[in-house]
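re: ur question from earlier - yeah i can do the single chain one, its not a big deal. heres the input i used so u can compare w yours
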Amino acid sequence: MSNARTAHLSRRGILAAGGALGLGALLAACGDGGGSGASDKAAAKDGGPWSFTDDRKEKVTADRTPERIVAFTGTAAALADFGLKDRIVGVFGETVLEDGSAHPQAGDLDVKKVEVIGNAWGEFDIEKYAALSPELLVTHQYDQGSLWYVPDESKDKILKLAPSVAVQVANVSLLKPIQRYAALAESLGADLKSRQVTDGKARFEAAAEKLRKAAKASGGLRVLAASGSADYFYVSTPAPAADLKYFAELGVNFVVPEDIKASGGYFESLSWENAGQYEADLIILDNRSTALQPKDLKSKPTWEALPAVKAGQVAEWDPVPRFSYQGAAPLMENLADAIGRAKKLG
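and the output i got, formated as tokens:
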């Protein structure tokens, strides 16, 4: 397995345990989260000095509110959902597909209007980045001090060019990073009372309730979150994944793998001959291009023999969600539909 693939898998599993936040509390306080106070919000509107305390516990400052933002593609899409689309000048991470269309991770971003300074893991063109005159770099944090999709070997050079903000998306439930990106957006001048944001909140709340009801009505349907590679079948444990953690809080009954130490506590790697080690009624499968898809897995006899596969009870799973109301709502809607269609298999 390549280093890049290993990095994807380890961070895929890191997606967030702990900190269950109530939906109502989040919707009432999406601007709260240690980011900025009233003075910072006022500064954002009048162009005065700006500051934001990020999830590295660093107070990031600027003489004026940043206008030119470069961000990981999924982060940029989330900030756009909160009303900052016109501030995004560059992105890094999977953005454009081979046919030139936008990667799903880009959300509603117009990828033709932003500079793509890296379109894959390990890609980050520092010259293109500098040429954008960036005023702020924003991305996820999985491990403490890490910056998602910012290459470690060039991080020091990159961080000299503009202030950076990291938002924790591991070891937290799904609502927390949404809350933090909302707080960041508000500090930058976004209107969280806009129709775009309030409609997104309403859809998110309805989707959460739909998933809660589907999970309850399923009678304990066993859901297994997985990713496939040529040599291994990876079974994710729900606790350290932001989305799975929250779905479990809503009542989804996830299969919990037992031997997760080798991955740092995030997933179990099973050889394909042991792919049936855990019983599941529904499999949600990593839908990214870095993972094998159902059509690719047909050559694996043990995959084809899994009861959920034989029953046609396999659904897509996006392990790196867009941390906004608009980004997260469809994930819950789709999972609720998949649970509603599935039957217990024994």
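Confidence is low (pLDDT under 50) at residues 1-40. not sure if urs matches, ping me
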